[in-house]
Amino acid sequence: MKAMAEEKVDKVRDPIYGFIHLDKLEKDIINTRPFQRLKNIKQLSFCYYVYPGAMHTRFEHSLGVMELATKVFDHFRHKGHLDYAIFEKNMKSKELANVDTARRILRLTALLHDIGHLPYSHSAETILPSGQKHEDVSIAIINNSEVTKVIKGSFKSDAKKIIRIITSLLSKDPVPEEFNILKQIISGQFDADRIDYLIRDSRHCGVQYGNFDSDRLIETLRVIHDPEKGGLRLAIDRGGVHCLEALILARYFMFTQVYFHRTRRLYDKYLEHFLAESKYIDIGKDLTKACNYDDCRIWVEIQNQAKSGKSFWAKRLYDRKSHHQLINETSDHADIKELQQMGLLASVLAKYYGNNNIIFDVAPEMKKPHRIHKFYTGKKDKDGEDKKELEELMVVLDDGSEKPLHEESEWLSKGPDTLHVGRLYAFGNEGKIKEIKGKAEEIKRKTKEG
Questions:
Q1: Which CATH number goes with the domain that contains 218?
Q2: What is the number of structural domains in the chain?
Q3: What is the rounded CA–CA span in Å between residue 426 and residue 428?
Q4: pLDDT, tens digit, for every residue of 146-183?
Q5: CA 375 distance to own-chain centroid
């Protein structure tokens, strides 16, 4: 496979990284309809109802991830880097041919990683076939759309191989060992995607929770041989441990204060109910049909159904004069039993006051808490934690020896690593809300007595 010369033909200005340079292939992909659609898909759904500046989209995030992934890649290509030799050697394989081709594949994967997002990002994923997520839609679009034609036109006879590599980097499927390091840069525990959205979301929301020293973190990245999967995997210098701790803490605060914000989650539930009820998005088994929908199209339908009175949920999204009130909330670290009890309470209240008037929300879901990170911490299992999902990150010490992160970072072994919060909302005027709260207390009291 021949490396293609990366002649820069254009550039765009980004509020985080300054100028992002594009070659012809990247520009051609960006100009396709599936990618342009991302300009009309907000990164944080209805979060702008809480943080008015959160109007940014998946479009600029995708460009940012490409830029940041390239920065990580180029960090290892610097001849002064301690791991330069083993990094270069790993990239010289039958599949990749050379480092320049690997870099090209990495950039394209980063650019396309979110192309399958549905309107209002994660909020609409509930309409997908069971078990499928936006990554599956991304893979479908890369394999069979206008984007596919652009890639084939550039790579010619190597196009099928390039597409296979890109889609394997986006899926959970194993990849040839020389690709492991690229996969970690795109989708790992401190990857370009996470770093970009934390910094970008913080900037647009006007908060400081997601900020940390990302430049220092990247500067301290190392690569080591992976004894399990083969190839290379990311590691970190001892001097970067505090930066990594700051990233984890930034993610924790962004989830508690922004992503799982009580009002933002309420509007996510409104959208889920609206899409389930209206069945407006029709994708079926052909996931590429997602290209037909964006926020603008969904908003027009919400507006129409709200004005016509056809949808209770559309009315809640469109008219902010009346919405559900929070009547009960767990801590950020609720256990399954507490959430199950709240869910039972919600079911009983719904029988009295109607399904539309009672909303039970568990962030992120009932069965499993949200993991802030998947680093092995040395802690005992909690909430059914699956150790297979956890990664033993190695810290490279000054003498070149390696040490597990959980042994080096006392904070990691003691700090929070999961979130699980439940909330109960009720709809009605002030008198009705007071009545529902009273009924909830009565039900809880009887349950205890029983």
A1: 1.10.3210.10
A2: 1
A3: 7
A4: 999 999 999 988 899 899 999 999 998 878 888 889 99
A5: 17
